[in-house]
Amino acid sequence: MILPWIPLLALLGVVVPLLTRQRGRRFCSLATAAPAILALLLVFSQVPALLAGDLPRFQLAWVPQLGLDLAFRLDGLSLLFVSLILGIGLLILLYAHYYLEAHEPFARFYSFLMLFMLSMVGIVMADNLLLLWLFWELTSLSSFLLIGFWSHWTDARKGARMALTVTGAGGLALLAGLLLLGDMAGSFDLGVVLESREAILADPRYPLMLVLVLLGAFTKSAQFPFHFWLPHAMAAPTPVSAYLHSATMVKAGIFLMARLHPAIAGSEAWELIVTLTGMATLLYGAWFALLKTDLKAILAFSTVSHLGLITVLLGIGSPLAILAALFHILNHATFKAALFMSAGIIDHETGTRELGRLGGLRRAMPVTALLTSLTAAAMAGVPLFNGFLSKEMFFAEAAASPLLGGLSWLLPVLATLGGILSVAYSLRLVHAVFFKPARKAPPKSPHEPPRLMRAPVELLAALCVLVGLLPVIAEVPLGLAVEAVLLTPLEFHLAIWHGLNLPLLMSVIALIAGVLLYALHAHLRQFGRQFSPMDARLIFEGAVQRLMTWSERLTVRLENGSLQRYMSWLLGAALLLGAIGLLQLPSLAGARPTQEADGILLLGAALMIFGALGTVATHRYRLISLLMLSVVGLVVSLTFARFSAPDLALTQLSVEVVTMILLMLALFFLPQKTPRESSAGRNIRDLGLAASLGMVVASLNYAVLTRDNHGISDFFIANSVPGGGGHNVVNVILVDFRGFDTLGEITVLALAGLAIFKLLNRLRLFMPHSDGEGRVWSPDRYPLILTSVSQALLPLALLVSAFIFLRGHNLPGGGFIAGLITAVALILVYMARGVEWTQQRLDFQYQPVAIAGVAIATLTGLGSWLFGRPFLTSAFGHFHIPAIGDIELATAMLFDLGVYLAVVGATLMILANLGKLTTPHRPSKEEKH
Amino acid sequence: MNPEVALPILIPLFSGALSLLFWRLRSMQRLVAVAGTAALLITSLWLLASVSRDGIQVMHMGNWPAPFGISLVADLLGAIMVVLTGIIGFAVALFSLATVGRGHEAFGYFPLMHLLLAGVAGAFLTGDIFNLYVWFEVMLVASFALLILGSEKAQMEGAIKYVALNLLSSVIFLSAVGLLYGLVGTLNMADIAQRLGQLEEGGLVDVLAMMFMVAFGIKAAAFPLFFWLPASYHTPPVAVSALFAGLLTKVGVYALYRVFTLIFNQSPDYTHEILLWGAGLTMLTGVLGAAAQFEFRRILSFHIVSQIGYMILGLALFTPLALVGGVFYIMHHIIVKTNLFLVSGFVHRLKGSYQLKKLGGLYKSHPWLAVLFLIPAFSLAGLPPLSGFFAKFVVIRAGLEAEAYGVTFVALLVGLLTLYSMVKIWAEAFWKAAPEDAEPAPEAPSQREQWLLYLPIVGLALCTLAIGLYGAPIYALAEASAAQLMDPGRYIEAVLGTEVTP
Amino acid sequence: MLDTALWISLTLVLAALALNVYRLTVGPDMPDRLLALDTMYVNSIALIVLLGLWLNTKTYFEAALLIAMLGFISTVAVCKYLLRGDIIE
């Protein structure tokens, strides 16, 4: 149960600095370090168990259905990495304590740093592929926050975005790769995966998986050609660079390759891809490290180069190569962290990192000079330092690898070339900063840093020397780690002296040629300058920029703001999909015979078609178009009547009139005649679209109508009287069988009323002076004949409406039609008498009427709940009322009353409010011609 | 009796009527807004509990047996959606208290919000295809009214496009319902499914399926039918945007899920293949559109489109795992997207702008808001351990399992671009120092308003975290609902009460 | 006997409807068109009553009643529109 505490303590470390921020930086730093120290102790406490051959594991189900467990392990590989992460992390913390300026939010910084530590610990300890990936993404995220810590600075923001984008892309590829891998192995449990090598290598998806996983590893470990984000991540505060880019984040990719080595390595594809990528990275990084003039940039590129070296070793993949890789990981972490911190000290004390402004610092900073020289020597691979040992092993493995067949000699040659470059840039780093006289004075006068700020560097430098002299001490952790990668123990012995052999020769060549190269370095830079500077950031941002312009162009093309365009897209899509479907139909007509057409029907159809065409043809003369439209409406309602649907006919008629009035109210504010707006081409497009859609819809209708169906309508006819208490099936359907629909629809109506009320409320429109032909409006506002007729008609119409409402349950009619008739009748009064006159007499708002309607309908429905029945269950009975006689009453009529009120309220809300737009105090203007 | 099936529709309907009655009493309207949405949330949880305990819940309106009356059906998917409606409704109601001005309240913001919620809940619960149309209309009209609340020119322009294109969808939907009724003679979805299963000729059914696909595709904002969304979502008050962003398109997605698992499941090679193409293109066009934007809400709007693609992808792959992913994605997306809009509203309240150019410095001045932005933003991009990670993860895994590599690649790529967009907002609005020529910020929110602003954002962020960290039960829920979707027989049996012959 | 009468009158009414549409189309003036539409309503009433006679049902007569009433109102609305532009003042 000790294992989960290691990440948990790191998690605690995320919170602690935020909580202790108030108590000063010293306290906060100490408090933050405490959990990490404890975690490190816990890690060491597991070493005896490991040495005894145990594998400490811990497992807790998280989302077991997905195969995601909270599972940790601590094998040799994890041990090596987790000690590096925690150990160097602690040193960095100490360093950062002195590095950050007083005004900077140190608690936030610590918190991010610990979050990063947590995610790294998670990666190396995860015993589940998905969990590993989860922490993997967490490193991208926390490093994003760390790199962008100085967020006011554009470079920091851009560097952070680039790092996140590149590693994020790799992360997604890795996810896909790991999913495939888990699928091949049958489990995401690391133990199972590591043991399913045969199954994995034999799977046809293996190459795809390999490429995806390697993409993830390469992007994270800054392998060529994905290396470009790393130098730009140097915009981070130096402690971050020292931590992320020496020991941890960039090592995550390497770790992944080592971790999965037993499961996915060993194929030819693996060897070729990994080795060659590593070699390219090694050389590329080393070359640029030699050319750069910014201290941190030099270190960044050298990191790239060393990562390449480790990658080559992993690609070669022999047991000794693995050993060398792990050893170099350890060595690189120590000397590179020290070098980054030294660079930070120099930057901190002199105010610059440019080689051009530095020089001769050995006098002002003798101790730093010594420490830097020692660690740089380790980086260069000078004998008696730790870097020498692993580099020697690298040379040996490169020389022994048969990877390239007849061209295998290339590997040791290239490796030596890398060694030469590495010696040269290390030498340059030390020489230019400390020994060469300065050309220009640095911004600040340099002096040694605080004692404790230097302590981490001293410790690491001491380690470099110690391991270099006594390599035996590294044997135990390396032995455990190698065993974890190879799955079997490996007998080996680390020694400084192997006798006179090829690797030693390569080392000697590298050292001598490296010194020479540095001597000629000025010429090299001359040579390098001939190439146009290739700033990776510019390329990356150029690519992003291109994507932006491209997508902008695409978006503008699609989303150009034209409603017509959108409509045509929509209709086009509907047309395409509908037509494709129709094409596959064996025959359009079904089995049912068609009805015979008589003269009335034919003429009706002709009128309707004519009316529709006329509406379109005259659309520029709005009123004529409206009249044509009403012809269509009239014929439609006649058609309903002809095919025995009187209810529909009545509804259609009333809706028709209301619509006409509505349109005329709106037309008043529009020009009488619209200008020609569409080009001929567009007219043709629209015509084509409309005609084809019409044909598709007509064909569909024909197809459906000529097929038999045995629907539910018989039930309605049979149950209307016994179940619903009404003879008019349509009405019973509306208020009973499907009353719920009606409830929804009257809500829509009331809502529409509200919306239009809202829409009109702040609208102030100009009104024309005269009609389309320029005739001034007639002065007679309320013609006498109209007023008298309307007064006579009103009670009559209300009577009709009441009649239609009351008998609706049994004969054509009902609340909806009755409501419309009432509304139309009242509108007539409005027309005849004007708004003011009418409102004096109808002294109430229409809004509450509509709401009351909806409320009555809802409450009627709820009433049935009181009797333990489902919503809207109706009841009816026959009652004897004196003087009137037997009548039948149903709760559905109450519901119908709700419908009636909602319709009246909503219709009048719309029409009366539109009418009110034109008050006597209206502004007006001349119609323009 | 199981009133919890109907209550999620009736409560907002009733709250809407109530707050219309108290048209002039501002405090009463605000009270009803909070109480009504809270009641909705509670009943929705009740519904989910009883559905997961006792299986699919059915209520026959008017006590008419199915298929003759209208049935309300709550299966797990429906119940989950209703719960999400409740959560979003409640969060937005709280947020509205601080952001919707007096002017909008006076014109019925709250009643419209309630009625919109009623429409949404109705669409999720109805088991009748025509009734679904009715609730779509309720939603459409209510949302249109909410869009034009401010009567500004941009709002009008957006609203006209919104309503015109959505009405087109309604027309197509209604015609399709009519044709379907003509073909099978029934409207109850379970009954339709059963009768279609017995129909010998499938060609016509496929055509109808396409019509439904177009109609719901418009609602869901799928490619190439999404234009109304980016044209309008950035115009209304932010609480309205948030409500729309969370719920409206998801109703379309829900309808697609319902119809293409229950009714049109006969020829998935044809219908779901088209959906697959639609899903891929939707993801791509949405995310590319977002890349070209520099306005907070417009970026988010385009991302709705791209995220819809993932949900449709879940449906299109049509494997059990893919449906789990789709359902999970819907759950996650509703919460996260609403939250992002709420954050954008908060930012607007502080800085007075949605233009990234004019924003900045919030990381320094409001670090907690920055964290609250990062949670949904990274969740949207699919970073672990947030809700979006699981959602994306399951969909991608399903894609790989179905060996649909092309569309899976698109899904991964879109994830990356989404991340890039979110980082763009983060870098511009939060990291970057505030521009010097920034207009003076509007009056800062009072302490009480800050509470109202923070509360829903924190709540939704906690939901996101909870879905991520406490994933197993949520996943189990999604899995169970996907299992119901894959086995329409259970739905049919629950509604019609008969044994179904497969 | 009735059948013959029905046929003759139906034919005439239909012819009238067609002529109405003709007038509606060619105009020449707005009031002409308006009158044409109004006459169409009247003729529709006739048509519907005749249909009722022919099919021997009573249900059509309410439709006729409503057409009469609503046709009148819509004609009034168009008239008001022509005269004043603004139909509700």
List keywords for this structure.
heterotrimer, A: 929 residues, mainly alpha, two-stranded antiparallel sheet, two-stranded parallel sheet, 36 helices, elongated, disordered C terminus, B: 502 residues, globular
Draw up the topology in text.
The complex is a heterotrimer of chains A (929), B (502) and C (89).
Chain A (H helix, E strand, L loop, with lengths): L4 H16 L4 H21 L1 H5 L5 E7 L4 E6 L2 H24 L6 H20 L3 H19 L6 H32 L4 H5 L2 H6 L3 H15 L8 H4 L5 H10 L1 H16 L3 H24 L3 H22 L2 H32 L15 H15 L5 H15 L9 H26 L15 H19 L5 H12 L15 H18 L1 H9 L6 H23 L4 H21 L15 H19 L4 H21 L3 H22 L12 H26 L7 H12 L4 H9 L1 H23 L5 E2 L15 H24 L7 H27 L4 H21 L9 E6 L3 E6 H26 L7 E2 L4
Parallel strand pairs in A: 3-6
Antiparallel strand pairs in A: 1-2, 4-5
Helix pairs in contact in A: 1-2, 1-5, 2-4, 2-5, 4-5, 4-12, 4-16, 4-20, 4-21, 5-6, 6-7, 7-10, 10-13, 12-16, 13-15, 14-15, 14-19, 15-16, 15-19, 16-17, 16-18, 16-20, 16-21, 17-19, 17-20, 18-19, 18-20, 18-22, 19-22, 25-29, 26-27, 27-28, 28-34, 28-36, 30-31, 31-32, 32-35, 32-36, 33-34, 34-36, ...
Chain B lengths: L6 H15 L4 H29 L2 E4 L10 E4 L1 H24 L2 H5 L2 H17 L3 H19 L5 H32 L4 H10 L4 H18 L7 H5 L5 H26 L4 H24 L4 H22 L2 H32 L10 H4 L1 H15 L5 H15 L3 H27 L15 H23 L1 H16 L1 H9 L6
Chain C lengths: L1 H25 L3 H26 L4 H25 L5
Helix pairs in contact in C: 1-2, 2-3
Detailed description of the structure:
Chain A: It is found in: Cell membrane; Membrane. The complex is a heterotrimer of chains A (929), B (502) and C (89). Chain A is mainly alpha-helical and 929 residues long. In chain A, strands 1-2 form a two-stranded antiparallel ribbon. In chain A, α7 packs antiparallel against α10, α17 (366-380) packs parallel to α20 (451-469) and α32 (739-761) packs parallel to α36. Residues 925-929 of chain A have low confidence and may be disordered. Chain B has a two-stranded antiparallel ribbon. In chain B, α9 runs antiparallel to α11. Chain C has one domain (2-84): Helix Hairpins (Orthogonal Bundle), CATH 1.10.287. The longest helix of chain C is centred in the middle third of the chain and has 26 residues, at 30-55. Chain C is flat and about 50 Å long. Chain C starts with a helix and ends in a 5-residue tail after the last helix. The relative contact order of chain C is 0.12. The chains are: A mainly alpha (929), B mainly alpha (502), C mainly alpha (89). Chains in contact: A-B, A-C. At the A-B interface, β1, α6, α7, α24 and α25 of A face α1, α5, α6, α7 and α9 of B.
